[in-house]
């Protein structure tokens, strides 16, 4: 067998886990340049989401952090966790946003970390920045950039709500920019801002900056920094409303608490289309007296099961065909039974993360766009050439 | 376009391999080769097509694959059963010598059969993941163009990945 062309090598490698790719950079200079190229990183990312063996769950516990492979739910080694006392907020394209006093970006697959530069809260004199802040992280496909959004709720000395300063960090420029203020009260949970679907971050907010007002799903477009409302499903009277949203399988999902702490999970199959909201499952907890959070994490590779994080206490495979929880995975640190509850808060937060080679290096925009243009031109040429070659050498049309 | 409605009998194509073996295939099988489908759509297809980059051994396998996929998809069985059947077939089909696998991958790229190309790429990827650098070089016929110092430096960048 002769040498395979670069494009075929790239296709083969694009189905591998990052650890093996980092190893195979040593095969030869051409292989190293394939694996380091921007086109390959995108191709690999595209394929990584399709195979659950390339996805992992990062579990952020009170005193322990670890990583599980999504297909087996067995522990995998990701080296030492990069920082103590950080909490995991959200992940996008294999990069993870972590926060303590300063936000950090982390690629667990390449084990690279990037500290974000400091940016002050810009509030007029006499006001105090309330400690409530929220971060979200997403991909801006139009500018091929990764962005972190920070919202800080500013209140006066009496604790009265004034405004919510919003700043956006661009990985490409390594700079923070202030954008229009966030016009709602921040949700309580720090993690609820990072629901990344369709190039936007989502959360559920009270419509007016006073409590008890009606709720809505708000989206922040990572590319344009614009806010918009996402249509909700029509609900009958007995519903309390949407308590949270999550992203799963590229779609927005919503959690609807019901009577006796039963919960429903709905999926918006077509983004932005109200009529496409469909009930996915109804979950009956074994202990109805206690309110438990429920978070859908991922579909199984065959698509007939959903992995649920039950209040950070255990992971459950929910069988969509049989409509019941099918298997509870026992993991060290996790409770092994739904009945063994205690009064402590959720022990873990589980974040789904795809294995990717996405780089955390900032680079100047002009460099990139010119390089990209060059690559696209080359690609076009290559396709045209391939077809010509095929027709001239490969085919002989005879009657 | 008009030809398919005019003819009542099934249209067949003759595919000739690099080593001169001729295979007779029905249109439903031939259209799985994207390059042939394009010729048919462009009304440039002749009933006799020579494929100079594929040996008869590989072409026979490619046709077996396309035939099975064409039959399963048009068989009228439910989508889930067809899916499972294809999965079983694909798994068995990939149980070949690795040199054959490399040639199948190359042929699938050349003939533009997307599903077979992805299948062979994924199989190759899982095959090589636990191999050493030297074994991978040998399998893909790749020459090591790093100097000892250069290779050491590249290895050092992600030393943990070798553990």
Automatic annotation (TrEMBL), chain A:
PROSITE patterns linked: FBOX
Family annotation (InterPro entries): F-box-assoc_dom_typ1, F-box-assoc_interact_dom, F-box-like_dom_sf, F-box_dom, SCF_F-box_component
Domain of life, per lineage: Eukaryota
Record Pfam families: F-box, FBA_1
Domain called F-box: residue spans: 1-43
SMART domains reported for this sequence: FBOX
Name of the protein this chain belongs to: F-box CPR30-like
Automatic annotation (TrEMBL), chain B:
Pathway(s) the chain acts in: Protein modification; protein ubiquitination
Keywords of this entry: Ubl conjugation pathway
Keyword Protein biosynthesis: no
SKP1 component POZ domain span: 12-70
Pfam family of the protein (one): Skp1
GO biological process: jasmonic acid mediated signaling pathway; protein ubiquitination; ubiquitin-dependent protein catabolic process
InterPro entries per record: SKP1, SKP1-like, SKP1-like_dim_sf, SKP1/BTB/POZ_sf, Skp1_comp_dimer, Skp1_comp_POZ
KW Cell membrane (keyword) present: no
SKP1 component dimerisation domain ranges (all copies): 114-161
Its biological purpose: Involved in ubiquitination and subsequent proteasomal degradation of target proteins. Together with CUL1, RBX1 and a F-box protein, it forms a SCF E3 ubiquitin ligase complex. The functional specificity of this complex depends on the type of F-box protein. In the SCF complex, it serves as an adapter that links the F-box protein to CUL1.
PANTHER family xref list: SKP1
Family the entry assigns: Belongs to the SKP1 family.
Subunit organization: Part of a SCF (SKP1-cullin-F-box) protein ligase complex.
Protein name: SKP1-like protein
């Amino acid at each position: 067998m002769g040498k395979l062309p670069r494009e075929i090598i790239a296709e083969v490698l694009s189905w591998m886990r990052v650890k093996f790719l980092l190893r195979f950079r040593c095969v030869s200079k051409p292989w190293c340049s394939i694996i380091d190229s921007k086109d390959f990183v995108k191709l690999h990312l595209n394929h990584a989401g399709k195979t659950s063996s390339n996805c992992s769950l990062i579990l952020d516990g009170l005193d322990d952090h670890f990583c599980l492979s999504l297909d087996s739910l067995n522990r995998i080694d990701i080296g030492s966790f990069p920082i103590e006392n950080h909490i995991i907020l959200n992940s996008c394209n294999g990069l993870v946003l972590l926060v303590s006093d300063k936000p950090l970006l982390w690629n667990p697959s390449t084990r690279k970390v990037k500290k974000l530069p400091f940016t002050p809260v810009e509030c007029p004199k006499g006001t105090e920045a309330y400690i409530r802040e929220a971060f979200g992280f997403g991909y801006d496909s139009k500018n091929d950039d990764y962005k972190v959004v920070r919202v800080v709720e500013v209140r006066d000395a009496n604790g009265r709500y004034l405004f919510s300063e919003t700043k956006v960090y661009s990985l490409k420029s390594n700079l923070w920019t202030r954008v229009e203020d966030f016009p709602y009260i921040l949700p309580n949970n720090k993690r609820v801002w990072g629901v990344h679907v369709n190039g936007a971050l989502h959360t559920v907010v009270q419509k007016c900056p006073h409590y008890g007002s009606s709720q809505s799903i708000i989206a922040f477009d990572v590319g344009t920094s614009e806010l918009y409302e996402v249509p909700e499903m029509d609900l009958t009277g007995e519903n309390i409303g949407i308590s949270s949203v999550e992203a799963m399988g590229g779609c927005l999902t919503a959690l609807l608490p019901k009577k006796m702490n039963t919960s429903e999970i709905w999926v918006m199959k077509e983004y932005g289309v109200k009529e496409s909201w469909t009930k996915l499952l109804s979950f009956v907890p074994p202990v109805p007296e206690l309110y438990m959070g429920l978070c859908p994490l991922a579909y199984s590779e065959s698509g007939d099961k959903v992995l649920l994080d039950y209040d950070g206490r255990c992971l459950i495979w929910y069988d969509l065909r049989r409509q019941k929880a099918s298997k509870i995975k026992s993991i060290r640190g996790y409770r092994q039974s739904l009945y063994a509850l205690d009064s402590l808060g959720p022990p873990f937060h589980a974040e789904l993360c795809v294995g990717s080679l996405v780089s955390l290096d900032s680079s100047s925009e002009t460099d990139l766009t010119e390089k990209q243009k060059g690559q696209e031109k080359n690609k076009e040429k290559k396709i045209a050439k391939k077809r010509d070659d095929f027709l001239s050498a490969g085919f002989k049309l005879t009657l | 376009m008009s030809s398919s409605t005019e003819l009542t009998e099934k249209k067949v194509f003759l595919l000739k391999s690099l080593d001169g073996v001729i295979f007779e295939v029905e249109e439903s099988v031939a259209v799985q080769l994207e390059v042939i489908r394009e010729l048919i759509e462009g009304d440039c297809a002749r009933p006799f097509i020579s494929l100079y980059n594929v040996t008869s051994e590989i072409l026979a396998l490619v046709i077996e694959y396309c035939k099975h996929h064409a039959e399963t998809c048009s068989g009228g069985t439910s989508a889930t059963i067809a899916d499972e059947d294809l999965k079983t077939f694909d798994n068995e089909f990939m149980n070949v010598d690795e040199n054959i696998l490399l040639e199948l991958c190359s042929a699938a790229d050349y003939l533009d059969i997307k599903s077979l190309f992805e299948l062979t790429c994924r199989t190759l990827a899982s095959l090589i993941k636990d191999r050493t650098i030297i074994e991978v070089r040998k399998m893909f016929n790749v020459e090591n163009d790093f100097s000892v110092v250069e290779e050491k430096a590249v290895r050092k960048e992600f030393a943990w990945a070798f553990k």
